[in-house]
Amino acid sequence: MPRRKQRREGLRLLFAVSVLAFVISLFDFFWTGNGIHGSLGALLVIASTLLMAVASGAIAVRAATRSLWSVLAPLILLDILGTGFAAYMLEAWILFALMVLALIIWLFDSLATGRRSARPAPEAAAI
What is the pTM assigned to this prediction? Predict the structure, then answer.
């Protein structure tokens, strides 16, 4: 599989994980069987997972320019880390597991991008 297609599949997977995390956080907010329903922390997690879904979706469908991508990629990492920490503190273990999965996907995608950009261009190698 070419690297470009593989990278795009990773971004689509990150988008799917973030949408699933958004649905789980909505469920945790409205379900009265847990200790976090209706709390401000659960509401904050809803907002952060929604932002993560929008940002990763914009990158996955290539709606973001290269400069916007360079801003969104680190913000998605911060969102993953912050949401994972919040999920840990709220004891929302499914959401925490999804954030660990999102972190792994983000790291693999970043390492694949880093390897590709580390190679010199053919013109630069000839000089």
Answer: 0.80
Instruction: Give CA–CA dist 46/61, Å, rounded.
Output: 22
Class in CATH terms, 3-126: mainly alpha
- pLDDT tens digits, residue range 46-89? 999 999 999 999 988 887 778 888 899 999 999 999 999 999 99
Q: Are 95 and 21 in contact (CB under 8 A)?
A: yes
